Amino acid sequence: MATSFSSSISTSTSFFPHFHVATTTRFTLQKPASIFNDRKTNLSFSLRSPIPARLAISCAVKQETVEKVSEIVKKQLSLAEDQNVTAGTKFTELGADSLDTVEIVMVLEEEFGITMAEERAKEIATVQQATELIEELVQQKTA
């Protein structure tokens, strides 16, 4: 079964720790992946430079979930159909205030049949963060 995943790789390397100078590089990839029965994917990558001090990789969310969350956000905020809402879009960039965010969370809970803990829901600032939490909770629910 082929499924699209939204993946991101973030690196942060400090070259001069005494002077607190750091460089950050961010890569965003979207690539189809095959999911096998053991839930492993065929995604792979290699680094051609030394491994940075900090490397974080996120490949957890399905593109379909990102799109569904994006559509819900657009509807809740009464955005135009042609408004571009991606995984990295911050709710505040779309004009959402804290009440709007609470309403978005409530609709997401209803749509996906989940309940988000208030502490975790308060941390949601982007479509990606909402999607990651939703998929985590859905997976816990079905396990």
TrEMBL record:
Q: Which GO terms describe its biological process?
A: fatty acid biosynthetic process
- SMART domains recorded: PKS_PP
Principal subcellular localisation of the protein: plastid
Q: In which pathway does it act?
A: Lipid metabolism; fatty acid biosynthesis
Q: Is Chloroplast found in the keyword set?
A: yes
Its GO CC terms?
A: chloroplast
The entry's localization annotation reads:
Plastid, Chloroplast
UniProt KW Lipid biosynthesis keyword: yes
> Which part of the chain is the Carrier domain?
63-138
Give the family from UniProt.
Belongs to the acyl carrier protein (ACP) family.
| Task of the protein | Carrier of the growing fatty acid chain in fatty acid biosynthesis.
The name this protein goes by in its record: Acyl carrier protein
Q: What is the native source organism of this protein?
A: Eruca vesicaria subsp. sativa
